[in-house]
């Protein structure tokens, strides 16, 4: 009886930097699909579907290659009055990546 050797596929291992850049690219694809933020001008935009959890997108600044955003639910922290939770995102138009720079929760 012949023994079959298991077939192993060679999946390249990603370095931490490669993995992070892949995550940034995935973030970009999701944001573009939901909001198309690269096309928006500075200002606030609200997405409401009637469930009480409105999503707010603040376009803080637009530059040639980057867009600065804040993504949050339209809820306020009772102590500070800041939108809670919120994430600050830098969208790189040329590299097609989106990096979360900091979060508030």
UniProtKB/TrEMBL annotation:
InterPro entries: DUF1249
Pfam families (alphabetical): DUF1249
Official protein name in the record: Uncharacterized protein
């Amino acid at each position: 009886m012949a023994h079959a050797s298991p077939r192993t596929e060679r999946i390249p291992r990603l370095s931490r930097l490669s993995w992070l850049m892949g995550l940034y690219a995935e973030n970009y694809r999701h944001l573009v699909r939901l909001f198309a933020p690269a096309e928006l001008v500075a200002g606030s935009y609200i997405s409401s579907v009637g469930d009480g959890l409105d999503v707010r997108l603040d376009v803080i600044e637009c530059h040639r290659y980057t867009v600065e955003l804040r993504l949050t639910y339209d809820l306020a922290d009772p102590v500070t009055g800041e939108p809670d939770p919120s994430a600050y995102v830098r969208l790189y138009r040329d590299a097609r990546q989106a990096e979360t720079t900091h979060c508030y929760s």
